[in-house]
Amino acid sequence: MALNVRMSDVVPEDRTAEPDYKPLNPWAIAALVTGFFSVLTFAHYVFWVIPGIGLLCAVIAMRQINRDPTYWAGQWLAKLGVSLSIGIGIAGLTATVMGWLLLQRDARATAEVFVGLLRAGEVERAFWLTVPPQWRREFDAATHGMDAKEAFRRFLAGGGGLFLGDRPRPDIRFEEIEEYGSDGERDYAFIRYKITGEDVDTYALIHVATLNDQETGRKEWYVEQMLTDYEPHSRKIPTAGHRH
What we know:
Helix content: 40-55%
Largest sheet: 4 strands, antiparallel
CATH architecture of the largest domain: Roll
Strand order of the largest sheet: 1-2-3-4
Structural class: alpha+beta
C-alpha cells in the first residue's frame, strides 16, 4: 500500500503553528554585535555612527519580532544591543567631549603663560617656551648656541620683537581658539590674540602643540610658533607688509 503523505502534513504552510525551534532574528544579532563595537567611540569621533547603527538594527529587530513573535526569537538580544549602544555611546561621547574641553583648557593655559611673559617684557623667557621641553633639558650652549641665536632672531622678527626694549609694550589679549584637535600623536591648537599699542594694531596667531616626553612618557605643551600680521581665520602666514 503506497503512502500518500503531503508535505503540508509535516511542515506548516504558514507560521500560525509555533515551530519547535525559533530562529534568532538576524537584526537582533546585528544589534548586539554593533552594541559591543560601540566601544570604538572611545577611540575616535568617526566611530560615533556605530551606536546609531546599533539602535537602528535593534528597532528593526523588535518590529519584526513583535510582528511575528511565534516565529522569531531574539528580542532580548535586541534589548541588550539597545542598552550597549546607548550606554557605551553616551560614555564614549562624554569622554570625547571632555577630552576636547581639557585640550582647549591646556592649550589656552600654555598660550597664556607665553603671552604673560611677553606682557612683562620677558621676551627671552617667552622664547624659551617655543623650544620643545626635552630639547630645553638637552640644550648645550657650545653645541646649539648658534642655532638658538638664529631661532631667537626669527622669533623676534615673527612678533616677539614688539615686546622688546624700553618703549611702552603693546597690549595683547585673547580673542578666540580658531582650531584645535589631535593628529593621533600630538594635540594642537591655533589661538588668536589681538595686539594693540601706540604704533601697532594687529592680530597674532599662536600655535601650541604637545610632544611626548621620552623620559616621563607624558605629553607636554609648548609654543610651536607665533605669527603676527595675521588675518583672522585665514590660517595664512603673512609674507610681507607692515604691522598697522
